[in-house]
Amino acid sequence: MAEHDLVIRHGTVVDGTGAQRFIGDVAVKDGRIIAVGEVEGSGRREIDAEGHLVTPGFVDIHTHYDGQATWDTQLAPSSWHGVTTVVMGNCGVGFAPVLDHNRERLIQLMEGVEDIPGTALHEGLSWDWSSFPEYLDALERRPRDIDLGTQVPHGALRLHVMGERGATQQPATPDDIEQMAALAREAVEAGALGFSTSRTLNHRTSLGEPTPTLRAEADELVGIACALGASGRGVLQVVSDFLDRDGELELFERMAAASGRPISVSIAQGARSGDDWRVELDHFAAATARGVTMRGQVGARAVGIMLGLEATLHPFMFSEPYRAIADRPLAERVGVMADPDLRRAIIDGARVDDTVLGSRAIHRSNYIFQLGDPPNYEPHPSSSAAAEAARRGVDPLEVLYDWTIADGGHALLYQPILNWFGENLDAVGEMLRHPASVPGLSDGGAHVGTICDVSFPTTLLQWWGRDRPEGRIPVETLVAKQCRMTAETVGLGDRGVLAPGYRADVNIIDFDGLRLHAPEIRYDLPAGGRRMIQRATGYRNTFVGGVEIMADGESTGATPGRLVRGAR
């Protein structure tokens, strides 16, 4: 009789610890890894993984599946990219705790901050919860392909306790803080992985209002953090503009030190902040050495936007002649846009004053590129729309027009924004190598009309581990960061490593054949809502708790994933 449920044989094992890869076997029984190395005994299923990487399942700690997880059994596209555990509830946005009259506000906040269609949220959310523990129960009732953990969002806490005062960023009273702290503690004791908040002006509701947490004062943040500390559970997550860099760093360290809870903060290279990201990561490393655990979540490539006729943004969206045809079906729209007279009118109409909302961003022709298939996320400046226009001797809007209507209007243009101030990804490579950094910021489930960064784990392996001409990073380092370090960052010590006793979340990867495909638009959200998805080739098998969920890029239909309640 077979001694094991599964044995993966002869693979190139990259075990998630950062240790050198080796050729070996991995045995699984009852959802756990029971042996790694030379495995004796047979398995009910045996897979020959010769010539393939065998890695832990990837842990993505920065997603926004808060709505999708309540209606969908497949947390795609994450599960298409080797991800076996996702963490949502980031950036202070989410759907619990909630009073009935605040439901619309939470939808507006999620729609504005994370670009998830409000119509899809209205249609998809069941709202069969009020408290955060009830929300966890609702999540637990739905089977899904991969594991899911969540955090209690500060925005929902503020609205729940403070109502209109919370929505308009009024200072919290001591009583407000006490109530929010009690609710946060209740949430982590029920199984939330932590508490998240946002301090960035980029986060606004669909009505343009700042996020409720933008101006939360130190006493409020430290008070909530200390409630987690009193429970001995949970982690802290923050996104900030770092307008007062030293003040913010002091505040975040104070939150972590006073509570004894680890904190992670989103880090990127911005236009105004220059190389402040180095200061921030160095501060986190020094604080951690002092016993205050701080880590920076960093991206695998530039943080940018996609432009296209099917996307939320494109270069001609504010042109009055275009707006007159904007509601027509795509094929019909592209057909009439080929008319020379209408083309000229749309281009002339796009030459609007840069004070018009968003027009400056969508006309930065020096930084707009054809994405292509396979997609190129580190394009050379000579391939920009402005450079092409100079070669052709035309206005850059002429080039952007041609690119926009290409491929029947399905074409997507790429505009890198953050992490792009050397017009390359050198800064990203330095961030990824930093000892205080962990991969994050993929925003899986969010920004469905503007961004598709859910493929960050694939970019890590393909671009940084194999294809980048200079500055490649050892695959062992990348896997350790995306598996063990991410898991540890959110308190999940039972996964992210291929070793006996760990959860049997495993990828078998054709490393030489690993390829990202271009993003595409689907209309499969509730109420026919639009989202941008992206596939990859090369993930041969993905297992969650020893159960195969993906085989050669296709879902098996299995749903072994569960809600992860609390630290492991």
Describe the structure.
Helix content is 33%, strand content 21%. With 568 residues, the chain is α/β, with parallel strands linked by helices. It has 3 domains: 4-58 and 507-518 and 531-554, Urease, subunit C, domain 1, CATH 2.30.40.10; 63-300 and 423-496, Metal-dependent hydrolases (TIM Barrel); 305-418, no CATH class. The strands form 6 sheets. Strands 1, 2, 3, 4, 5, 18, 23, 24 and 25 form a 9-stranded mixed beta sheet that branches. It has a 6-stranded parallel beta sheet with strand order 9-10-11-12-13-17. A 3-stranded parallel beta sheet has the order 6-7-8. It is globular, with a radius of gyration of 24 Å.
What is the CATH top level name of the largest domain? Alpha Beta
- Sheet/helix structural class: alpha/beta
What's the β-strand tally? 25
Q: Roughly what fraction of the amino acids lie in strands?
A: 15-25%
The biggest beta sheet is recorded as: 9 strands, mixed
Give the quaternary arrangement of the chains.
single chain
Give the distance, in angstroms, between the N- and C-terminal Cα atoms: 33 Å
Task: Say what the CATH topology of the largest domain is.
Answer: TIM Barrel
Rounded Rg: 24 Å
Individual helix count: 19
- The stretches of 5 or more residues where confidence is low (pLDDT under 50) are none
Query: What is the annotated CATH architecture of the largest domain?
Result: Alpha-Beta Barrel
